[in-house]
Amino acid sequence: MATNSQTKTVERPSAYTNGKTQRQRNADARQLLHAWLADKSGYDEETWPCLKRGLEANRSGDRKLFRD
What we know:
This protein is mainly alpha-helical. The protein has helices at about 20-40, 45-55. The protein has a domain at about 20-55. The relative contact order is 0.06.
């Protein structure tokens, strides 16, 4: 089978980037993290114990995932 040594790779813009630069995407990510950290709804504190029990109950190993 013959190979073409002059094959060029063409990068297509990803739908994820929306034409933004890496710096812009990083700034968007930082803004989202700050919004999450500022959330005072109590949802995390309410949901975490149930999620933790479910994760521990469905483990195949003997070791716990989380310390109490």
